[in-house]
Amino acid sequence: MDAYLEIRLLPDPEFPVSFLMGALYGKLHRALVTLESSQIGVSFPGYSQSPRGLGDCLRLHGDQSALSQLMMQNWLKGMSDHIQCSDILPIPESVQYRTVSRRQFKTSSERLRRRRMKRKGETWEQAAAAIPDSVERRPDLPYVHLRSQSTEQSFILFIEQGELREQPTSAEFNTYGLSRQATIPWF
Predict the structure, then answer these.
(1) Model-level pTM?
(2) How far is 54 from 39, CA to CA, in rounded Å?
(3) Dihedral of alpha carbons 137, 47, 9, 95, sign
(4) Is 50 within the bounds of a domain?
(5) Known catalytic residues?
């Protein structure tokens, strides 16, 4: 991983930044699926848990060749009025590293109980005894609304940043540019 590029969202009076980030990130996901790429990672320099948001910048990390191949796909079509895209640039000399990954939550005990009843053939009372209300967790991470290319289902993708590290870890990224193992340069 020796290069990056930034795609910055421009202010728009009609659309909130979160909506535009969702559209941009959805387009990136479709492009990564089409390319079958596992060598491009993402980061969000404006990431914040309070106030919760991903910010107005999507940074793509990878080798110069992988980023060039992605940008030749014309995947940003339809977003040109809403973005400013940098050239592909070399990673700065001294950086730290971190993971950027998906985090899934058990958000609804009611949903989990219905699912358990269906899967195990249990009654409501049995499922309620097995799954207490305390399993619910209110997510506090920034997120983006997306549609999966494989299932066509809409969902919320919660994004978690790992702790800063001094050394990079190589691994593959998924088609959302996320990984629990692979690190991206953080600067």
Answers:
(1) 0.83
(2) 22
(3) negative
(4) yes
(5) 29
